[in-house]
Every structure is written in structure tokens, then in C-alpha cells.
Design a protein that fits this description.
The complex is a heterodimer of chains A (101) and B (187). Chain A is an all-alpha fold. In chain A, 85% of the residues lie in helices and 0% in strands. Chain A is elongated, with a radius of gyration of 20 Å. Chain B is an alpha+beta fold and 187 residues long. Among the domains of chain B are: 38 residues, no CATH class; 77 residues, no CATH class. In chain B, a hairpin with a 2-residue loop joins strand 2 and strand 3. Classes of the chains: A mainly alpha (101), B alpha+beta (187). At the A-B interface, helix 2, helix 3, helix 5 and helix 6 of A face helix 1, helix 2, strand 2 and strand 3 of B.
Chain lengths: 101, 187
């Protein structure tokens, strides 16, 4: 292998295989999310559930309104509340994910 | 025009994956974390080689090539068995109590008006009827056993609707989305 090829292989490997530091940070992030999410589920089960519906099943506003049995306006308000509550309950995780490193 | 909530919603649902807004970045991260969590909760696939090993060991035992596994337990005295069963019952009941869902308490800043009445269900139906007579379609729902109503009120708010709300001591909502839940009043 030429030095250029070796350098390119090393570059691609670094991109595709997480370094040990990355793996540790991913583990910490994942554990932090689990802790925050469990507390979110405990204190605002309806809001956490609707967020998981949106993420997992890609539900639309109309589908959520039908599931909640609420009017379109009330559903929009509820979803807005979901976002606000997520920001509060996932604050530690946001800080770890976006502010540190 | 899309507001921040719409951007957040679309990114959470994976509809738009290239929005540079901060709300979108946060929503994409939440989506990825939820999907990772769900994937981790899936039951693990049975390892083929481990199953094959168990099958071979079982076959070797059946053919007398390996000795049968020894059972090392002894019978407990009757009083110890009774104590163990009682202990297990207490543990299970404590765990069941611990896992019961926590009550949901909604703060007033959520936009939901909370009122009390001796007959919440009847008041819910009465309000739906009264609002309907004023041309407002209100929906009844129940949240954790608490009757509720929501309705998109017309803008500007007709005086008739304002009077109905005032009659029940309800302040008209600022955004004209009425969300109301009725608790049972304690006598």
C-alpha cells in the first residue's frame, strides 16, 4: 500500500469506527437520556407518550387529535406543551449533548 | 408561516431532516434517542450458536455421553417454606404498589382551566349543550377519570358565549382555545 492509500484507509476507519472516547460519551448520553425520559414519563405520562408517538410512528396533528379526542386547536396547544415539558425534563441531556464538547 | 412548534414537530416526526433551526436540531436528537431506546428494548435474538450448543449437550446427555446435571437443592422445613412464601407475597405486593402510575397533576400554566363541581360529568354535558346552543362545537373527553371539554371558540368571542363562560365562572381563554377539566368538589 502506498502512504497515500494508508492515510486514506486510516481516515475512513476513523470516520466509521467510533473512538473509545466517543463510545464512552455515547454511553453517558444514552444513560442520561434514559434517566431524564423515565422522570418525564413519571411526571407527565401523556406528554411523553405523545412525543414517542410522533417520533416512533410519525403521527400527524390530525392523527394525534383523533387519538387524544381533542379539537385541532387543543391538540396544537397540547403539542406545544409537549415541547416545553420535554425541554424541562430533558434539560440535563440537552446540556450534555449540545453544550459540552 | 411555520412557527417553532411546527419546526420541532416535523423534525421529531422525521418529516424534515435538514432544517438548521435550533428547535429542529433538538427534535432530531430526541427522535434519535427515542428510536435508540426503543431498539434497545426489543427482545434479543436468541444466539444461534448458544442454542446449538445446548442442543448438542442435551443430545450427549440423552445418549449417556455426559452425566445428567445434579440437583443440589434440599427440601426446606415447612416453617421456612411458609416464611419464604409470605416474604415473596410481601415483596410482590410492594413492587406492584411501587409500579402503579403516578397521578398526573396539570399546572394551571398549561392553559387548562380547572374547575370543581359536585357532579363533574353532568356539568360537562351541560356546558357542551350550552355552548352548542351558542353555535360552538365543544368536545367532551375524559382524562384520568376527570371529565374535560375543549372547544375552538370563534374570534371575536360572541357575547352569548362570553355570558355562558361567565355564568360558570370561567375566564375566556386568551387564544380562544377553551380547555377545561372538572374535578369533583369535596363536600
Amino acid at each position: 500500500m502506498t502512504p497515500e492509500t494508508q492515510a486514506r484507509v486510516a481516515e475512513l476507519s476513523a470516520e466509521q469506527v467510533p473512538a473509545a472516547d466517543d463510545a464512552v460519551k455515547q454511553g453517558q448520553l444514552s444513560a442520561c437520556f434514559d434517566r431524564c425520559w423515565d422522570k418525564f414519563m413519571e411526571s407527565s405520562p401523556e406528554h411523553a407518550l405523545v412525543i414517542s408517538w410522533i417520533a416512533e410512528d410519525n403521527l400527524t396533528h390530525e392523527q394525534i387529535a383523533a387519538l387524544l379526542g381533542r379539537s385541532p386547536g387543543a391538540t396544537r396547544e397540547f403539542i406545544s406543551q409537549c415541547r416545553k415539558r420535554a425541554r424541562i425534563h430533558l434539560a440535563d441531556w440537552y446540556a450534555l449533548a449540545f453544550l459540552e464538547g | 408561516m411555520r412557527d417553532e412548534d411546527d419546526i420541532w414537530f416535523d423534525s421529531l416526526a422525521g418529516v424534515k431532516n435538514d432544517d438548521p433551526e435550533r428547535a429542529a436540531t433538538a427534535a432530531r436528537a430526541v427522535r434519535a434517542a427515542i428510536l435508540t431506546r426503543i431498539a434497545a428494548e426489543q427482545p434479543p435474538v436468541v444466539d444461534q450458536s448458544a442454542r446449538r450448543e445446548s442442543e448438542l449437550i442435551a443430545r450427549a446427555r440423552a445418549e449417556g455421553l455426559l452425566p445428567a446435571p445434579r440437583t443440589t437443592y434440599r427440601r426446606l422445613p415447612a416453617y421456612l417454606a411458609a416464611a419464604a412464601i409470605a416474604g415473596l407475597a410481601v415483596t410482590v405486593s410492594l413492587q406492584m404498589r411501587h409500579e402503579s402510575p403516578a397521578p398526573v397533576i396539570r399546572a394551571s400554566h398549561s392553559g387548562i382551566v380547572r374547575i370543581r363541581d359536585e357532579r363533574p360529568k353532568e356539568l360537562q354535558q351541560q356546558l357542551i349543550r350550552e355552548l352548542a346552543s351558542a353555535g360552538v362545537k365543544a368536545r367532551g373527553y375524559e382524562s384520568f377519570g376527570r371529565p374535560g371539554i375543549d372547544a375552538d371558540l370563534p374570534t371575536p368571542l360572541p357575547s352569548e358565549v362570553r355570558e355562558i363562560l361567565a355564568h360558570h365562572g370561567i375566564t375566556p381563554p386568551q387564544d380562544n382555545v377553551l380547555q377545561l377539566e372538572i374535578d369533583t368538589s369535596t363536600p
